[in-house]
Design a protein that fits this description.
The chain is mostly helical. Among the domains are: about 200 residues, Growth Hormone, Chain: A (Up-down Bundle); about 55 residues. The protein is built from 21 helices and no strands. Helix 4 packs parallel to helix 6 and helix 4 packs antiparallel against helix 17.
């Protein structure tokens, strides 16, 4: 028996170890952006990055990552999810090393974009392998652990980044990825089974190009909108281009006899409504954490490491509740659990409007627990619903759709919530600084950033400086509240949609189809009936 056959035959027995490896693989992807945010001030000093370059150091990764997800998931289904995962590891690890060695801001932007290619292959491969390794009765619990890892990673980024920056140089936030990549590569050879679509259709290069170009253009417009203005010519141009290319993608996929993404999947509300729930959840999560980390540091005066420690109130409920959500779904059904989760998100965000310039950590923490509990109850059941509605052979594309909705939801959340916040904050700070005789550059900087406003307040000095700092912090909190209301409204709309249209249980035909696929392919692997067994899918 060949090595790959022995691995496939033992995949089910080793499935929980496989889950551990895949969750660590996912963690490094999710951590990458949030861990970088705390290193930005150091990067400014060492590389002399401009504001525009700083934005693209963060966004180059997201743009490439999200743009390639559908194509990477489709290639994984066709050529094998383990090879896709291994390829992603190699690219991501190499990119991490190059990023840590970057000598200029432009080099760092390029290496971050390169890392996005690796991330696009890693993330959908993790979920599709889990879907194929675990039988239906355990899949919800396994995806719960996976979803908890994704949520925890967002909150742990500032903590990890703060610790590394206190002890090492800024490149350490990238080098920390390398040991995880090495472990993933080794585990891929000896532990993780291969799986793929046993009857793949022809490649769809036109669909791949249209999806990459369309998603990238839309994300570029979303990323640039808050900075250049939503009605700026360049922003509107990329929105139009992205919209037209995305529409062309859908038209092509409908007419193609070998589509990369079978659009009939969206006819199943367990797929489409659950995808919407994921998007709304990440809209609320990324938008709220984007402002919350600044609130901790600039308004309350915590360091990056202290902020990361306090965000554990967000991470711990995720770790506990997301794996348990499968039991709640078993008893109550997907609809009740997801609606409850989205309602808790909306409630936690609405209650957070009560936070002030002088709120205690306890006042913040219990509100964070409500939000995080809602996200934990939404992400895992919605993801399970998405993956349970598809043939196992299409798990890669299904996972890529799930991941794409997360990325788009997160990007839109930061952009929209950030824009609402910025409009209120900038207006109030502008009123506060008017008539103080400050140079235009200082006024513009103070209106753009509370951190810069506090520097300006120090330069003013005395009672006037203290008064301006207090006004800037108050303006931040007012903008913070407005952004929270936007997130709460989005979560509430998601809860209403799930209540109206999300089925409580899987369709019998979906369960029977997946059970048949799972059993047949595992039996084939045990008896070596296929040359490249799909024991995990």
């Amino acid at each position: 028996m060949k090595l790959k056959d022995r691995v496939a035959a033992k995949a089910e027995a080793r499935r929980w170890w496989i889950l551990v490896v895949l969750c660590f693989s996912l963690l490094v992807i999710v951590l990458d952006n949030s861990i970088l945010n705390v290193a930005i001030p150091t990067i400014v000093g060492d590389l002399g990055a401009t504001n525009s370059q700083l934005q693209w150091i963060v966004d180059a990764y997201t743009l490439v990552f999200a743009g390639l997800l559908l194509t990477a998931g489709s290639l994984g289904d066709r050529y094998g999810r383990r090879p896709a995962l291994q390829f992603g590891f190699v690219v991501f690890g190499l990119g991490s090393i190059l990023a840590a060695l970057s000598g200029t801001a432009d080099q760092l932007i390029a290496t971050r974009a390169f890392m996005g290619i690796g991330g696009a292959f890693i993330m959908p491969a993790t979920l599709s392998i889990i879907t194929n390794v675990f039988p239906a009765h355990e899949r919800g619990k396994a995806i719960g652990v996976w979803a908890a890892t994704a949520g925890v990673g967002v909150a742990l980024g500032p903590l990890t980044g703060g610790f590394l920056l206190e002890h090492f140089y800024w490149g350490s936030v990238f080098l920390v990825n390398v040991p995880i990549v090495v472990v993933g590569l080794i585990a891929g050879v000896f532990l993780i089974p291969d799986s793929k679509d046993p009857h793949p259709s022809r490649l769809d290069p036109v669909g791949a190009l249209l999806s990459i170009a369309g998603l990238s253009a839309l994300l570029y417009a979303i990323i640039e909108g808050p900075d250049k203005g939503w009605t700026a010519g360049s922003t509107l141009t990329f929105f139009v281009i992205g919209g037209l290319l995305t529409a062309a993608f859908f038209v092509w996929e409908i007419r193609s006899d070998h589509p990369m993404l079978d659009l009939s999947f969206f006819e199943n509300p367990r797929f489409s409504v659950a995808s919407g729930a994921i998007m709304v959840t990440f809209f609320a999560m990324f938008g709220s954490i984007f402002l919350l980390t600044q609130y901790f540091q600039f308004v309350l005066g915590y360091s990056p490491l202290e902020t990361g420690v306090r965000l554990l109130a967000f991470a711990i409920p995720m770790m506990i509740l997301a794996p348990l959500s499968a039991k709640f779904v078993e008893r109550l059904g997907t609809k009740v659990v997801v609606v409850t989760g989205l309602s808790l998100i909306a409630t936690g965000l609405a209650l957070s409007v009560g936070l002030t310039v002088g709120s205690s950590y306890f006042d913040i923490a219990w509100r964070m627990v409500i939000m995080a509990s809602g996200m934990a109850l939404t992400m895992a059941p919605a993801t399970t619903s998405i993956m349970g509605s598809l043939p196992l052979a299409k798990a890669g594309v299904g996972s890529a759709v799930n991941d794409t909705t997360r990325q788009i939801g997160g990007a839109v959340g930061v952009a929209v919530v950030g824009s609402v916040f910025a409009s209120i904050y900038g207006s109030q700070v502008g009123d506060a600084v008017a008539g103080k005789g400050l140079p235009p550059v200082a006024v513009a900087g103070a209106k753009d950033s509370l951190g810069f406003a506090l520097v300006v307040a120090d330069r003013i000095g005395g009672a006037a400086g203290d008064a301006f700092a207090a006004a800037a912090r108050s303006a931040f909190v007012d903008g913070f509240h407005a952004g929270l209301w936007v997130g709460a409204g989005a979560a509430l709309l998601g809860a209403i949609a799930a209540l109206l249209w999300l089925p409580a249980r899987a369709r019998r035909e979906d369960e029977e189809s997946q059970a048949a696929e799972f059993g047949i392919e595992h039996a084939a692997a045990e008896h070596e009936l296929v040359p490249a067994p799909v024991a995990a899918g």
